[in-house]
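Tutorial handout. Part one gives the primary structure; part two gives the three-dimensional structure as tokens.
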Amino acid sequence: MNITIKALVKKRIRWGIIGLGRIAEKFANDLELVTDAELYAVASRSEEKAIGFARKFKATKAYKGYTKICEDENVDIVYIATPHHLHFQNSLDCLRMYKPVLCEKPAAINRKQLEEMISESKSNQTFFMEALWTRFLPFFSEIYKTIISGSLGEIISVRADFCFNTEFNPKSRLYDQNMGGGALLDIGIYPVFLAYQLMGVPQKISATAKIGKSQVDEVCTIIMEYEHGKSAQLLASIIFESRMEAEIHGTFGSIVVPPRWHESTEFSIVLNQRRTKRIQPGKIGKGYTHEIKACHDCLRNRWIEHPDWSHKNSLELMGILDSIREEIGLRYPYD
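Part two.
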């Protein structure tokens, strides 16, 4: 796998951010905790918002619109935090200017879009990664090591949910079909990611959904089936709350991750002999720090993808999401 890019040997890596909503604020807060990171430029459709965000986080440049930040030669990498439907074009604009990209999940609306984005990354030898931050959190790295070690035996079942209650608003990104709204792409991606990372691509997918007035999935229930009776039971909703726990069951024991499992700082291992071990790896800041450092590793090691969350991983995950949407009859204008 050829994953070389031009090396960055400078002491500080200068970030740009496109899209300045709540998740961009959380990301910018964590950037301040990474010693070799600097928020250099921000971009928004609103000039006022860009200036205010830049002032708050001490960014050097504030751009109205998204194109100028791609052309700024002082920006080493761009974090794309716009709504789902803009990820495709925002990423392509950066990659075509040889600007490395960390794109918020889901990286695209569908696999066809993502294939084009990754093709551009490979063609231009420019770093591109989907910002699935859970993959880089210390708790998940420890879970992954535990499973790879074989101490849980063969993984038989995964159960995970991600549900919260929101007020219906057809103009909000969660309920707007034109913005890639719905439970699956916004939060259902986390339970699906967990099952995929631990069990792989399923042989069969069954899914049902409550499609709301704005024609997006307000509830999505998923069963992913694997060989020898293995399965994952997954749930996502934007109209009711759940405990947001995760359970991983193997032939020798289980792992239980407490709420909110996707950003946890701990988990428990329960062996069949009833011995329980609590693991508390913690995290730095909100936790985006860990994917930021992963991006820095890629830039400095001349990689266009990260081995722990590769282009192939993103493509396979998006393929699963596409299959789920086909099962529940959810379509977007971009399909």
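Part three, for discussion. The first helix runs from residue 22 to 31. The domain at 13-134+299-304 is CATH 3.40.50.720 (Rossmann fold).
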